[in-house]
Amino acid sequence: MSILNLSALALSEKIKAGEIKVTEVARLVLDQIKETEESIHSFVSLVDEDAVMKQAALLQEGIDKGELTSPLAGVPMAIKDNMCTNGIKTTCSSKILENFVPTYSSHAVEELEKAGALLIGKTNMDEFAMGSTTETSAFGITKNPVNIEHVPGGSSGGSAASVAAKQCYFSLGSDTGGSIRLPASYCGIVGMKPTYGTVSRYGLIAYGSSLDQIGPMAKTVADCATVLEVISTYDEKDSTSMKRSDTDFTAALVRDVKGMKIGIPRDYFTEGLQVEVKEAVLKAAEVFRSMGAIVEEFDLSLVEYAIPAYYTIASAEASSNLERFDGIKYGYRTKEYEGLHAMYKKTRSEGFGAEVKRRIMLGSFVLSSGYYDAYYLKALRTKALIKKAFDHAFASYDMILGPVAPTTAPKLGMSLSDPMKMYLGDIYTISANLAGLPAISVPCGFDQAGLPIGLQLTGDCFMEKKIIQAAFSYEQEMIQKEVE
Amino acid sequence: MAKVYETVIGLEVHVELATKTKIFCACSTEFGGSPNSHTCPVCTGMPGSLPVLNKKVLEYAIAVGLATNCDITRYSKFDRKNYFYPDNPQNYQISQLYLPICRDGFVEIETENTSKKIRIHEIHMEEDAGKLIHDEWENCSLVDYNRSGVPLIEIVSEPDMSSAEEVITYLEKLRLIIQYLGASDCKLQEGSMRADVNLSVREVGAKEFGTRTEMKNLNSFKAIARAIEAERARQIELLEEGKEVIQETRRWDDNKEYSYAMRSKEDAMDYRYFPEPDLVPMMISEELLNDIKANQPELRTEKQKRYKEEFDIPEYDIDILTSSKHLADLFEETVAICKAPKKVSNWLMVETLRLMKEEEMEAEDLKFSAENLAKLISLTDEKAINSTVAKEVFQELFHHNIDPVVYVDEKGLRTVNDEGELRRVIEQIVNDNPKSVEDYLGGKEKAIGFLVGQTMKQMKGKANPDLINQFLKEELLKKA
């Protein structure tokens, strides 16, 4: 059990030192999946056992020969099922892609494979990343490994659960409105959304193209920084991919927050925020203060406009992005139909789930002629104003500290009945996507029921290193406190 | 009193750009190829694929904009046009609605001694769709995405034209400009240039425009002219009958010389345009603009001026030679080899144009090479073949681009320069045709023509006509 508890970096050190073989790690992980998967259901599909073992042996060989030197070499990973994996089914947890096998891999997956990480499986998610609970998946719900009566959060719920259930050492998630940070918070792990444009979106099946970012999910801040460093290479196949020379994120794993200016938006601490969450977050702020950071409250403003702006923009883009799923070229096609239009209608009616249809309709509506200016354009203007509000905040602060979500993980089945309430759960995460900012979710305690609470640190564009350094410092401080 | 109507026409012209690769991926744009052989995840709309703009497309679009006096939009964007159809793999077309790359230009056209400015509303970039093929045998539809993602520009004019003649003149001018820029070959038959005609009629003097229709599927200048005449007549007839013209899209059937309604304004689609989030906005820098301006190829008027200075050929020839980029290129390349501008011009102006007319071909469809035309000219210069044979060889050159030297040798067409044999034949002919000899000597100079013909026939056409004339006269003098 102790090997499974290790962080990716700690495991990597043992592999490099020859204390454990990649094949042994793979065996442990496969056994752990056998034991836990039935109750958790993190995965939509698992890589065939023999293939995993064979690959593990190859990776061990590469490490032995000194060809694989990355800290991720031989480390088992899981990938959210909206990232294409060459030759491995990629479904977005949707019936409409139930049999889709891509002939190419997403850029992020390619980079991880080059580094020698070992792919175990594709993780469950809300259908097309639309949802905050992983309950909208067409292939069954994922449960929170901390308490299986609760949701793991979403949409990258499978990715979070697989790490929390020790079925792998790290995973990739995608974050359009909080889909990495929220499940990380609910499952008690670390999750990070980088600045828009940092990780190539090539091969990521789009939900809201202008908001989507791939990011790491792992047990520790250091693991997240390591994974992000590997996947944040420039990619000419994505026009929005940025050439950055500051992606040595592990260089920021320094325990020092002295003099850092941290702002806490007063607007975040309003009604609807669970008391235990509020207390845990404010307690974390105290920890920062005690470590030498300057922590102040301030008014961010416009917080309440983020949700309507987000759902307008994301749904508009989604309604267009999802048009290609039409039964013509790949994926699901209805069995019986007469004529092209009936085929489109039946295929899409049967292939998409309720939440996806809701957002396609919403998105189509806000883009319709006569409504475009009133909704879509207004949302874009709101987005620009929100960005401005953050620019203003970052003129005074190095980062913003707040909760990830208003509550801890809800019980299974509680959220979908009230979509508006579910949408409001994204209030603290969404603005980072609208403004393109990097943000990290770090565990900062538990509620009375023992459910994890997440702390969110949001930085200015390209300031990943600052939030990594702060999150790392907090994490180390808390570990030290626990030991003491 | 009968009402007098005028026609108001605006054009939407699609031009396929001559880039080697597609607009948003690295696939080849080459015509033909087995179905779906020029495709990748991007141009087949596979999940997770992303478009990346081919910079050459932007450069061509700007070049066309500059040559048509447009303002170049310095902050330009792509938009998505959403509609479901199987030839459109993403079910949206990446196009430009809000910030097209070029705006507010014009093209000057000359008709009946006057010139007229046709204003250009905008030029935007977009991707072409694939092609649906209905398999009657299997009763199913198949889709070929080889054309999917081929770059297009759409040139939208203002409603500034009033006749088929003006429309054709405008299109010819536009085509010439684009061909000279090398931005497209603009072949209507192959669809690399397509025009949709927006047409309405109104009483002369009326202030408001009439209701317009849009006509599609026009594959030749002739079809465009016929469609305009027919649509004008149809609309006038409706108005004369007291009926209304319905705003609709119509499809022209050039075989039946009739158009039928495809869809009316009521069923017009809502394309739900919005900015394409997968492509970043284009900031057109001063450097890029200057670069494109500096590298703008020689356009027609410049070429005409240069020909006048460089080559000793009539202005009329220059006009015709520069009327097509391909013809002008052929001319220049041939002259570069054989250094005989007048002779090259003659071949192009006379025989080439004659055969083109006979075959109803465009200059762009000419198949023969400059090298081979130069070879033919040097064969005639060397008097290795006579002019009759040369014309025969040219026919072959025109149709099959044969190597004239090889052809002449294989067919044994070289002029026989064996004077002895020619003299023997002439002696024989003169002896066999005493009547003609008598006529000639009696003062009928034309009679010699018959004797020349007989000689040439005997020589199987391979004799040097000058020599025949010379020797014949000598032989005839002997009889005097």
Q: What would the keywords be for this entry?
A:
heterodimer; A: 484 residues; alpha/beta; Amidase signature (AS) enzymes; 11 strands; globular; B: alpha+beta; Arc Repressor Mutant, subunit A; 3 domains; 15 helices; 16 strands
Overall description:
The complex is a heterodimer of chains A (484) and B (480). Chain A has 484 residues and is an alpha/beta fold. In chain A, 40% of the residues lie in helices and 13% in strands. In chain A, helix 3 (22-40) runs antiparallel to helix 4 (49-64), helix 10 (306-321) packs across helix 12 (354-367) and helix 10 (306-321) crosses helix 13. The longest helix of chain A is centred in the last third of the chain and has 24 residues, at 373-396. Chain A is globular and about 70 Å long. By secondary structure, chain B is an alpha+beta fold. Chain B has 3 domains: 5-287, no CATH class; 299-410, no CATH class; 419-479, Arc Repressor Mutant, subunit A. Chain B is built from 15 helices and 16 strands. Chain B has a 9-stranded mixed β-sheet with strand order 2-6-7-10-1-11-12-13-14. In chain B, strands 5-4-15 form a 3-stranded antiparallel β-sheet, with no helix packed on it. In chain B, strands 3-16 form a two-stranded antiparallel sheet. In chain B, helix 9 (370-381) runs antiparallel to helix 10 (387-400). Chain B is elongated and about 95 Å long.
| Main sheet specs of chain A | 11 strands, mixed
Q: How many domains comprise the coordinates of chain B?
A: 3
CATH architecture of chain A: Alpha-Beta Complex
Over the alpha carbons, how many angstroms does the gyration radius of chain A reach?
21 Å
Q: Using DSSP, what is the number of strands of chain B?
A: 16
Termini separation of chain A comes to 24 Å
Q: How do the strands line up in the largest sheet of chain B? A: 2-6-7-10-1-11-12-13-14
Mean pLDDT of chain A: 96
Proportion of strand residues of chain B? 15-25%
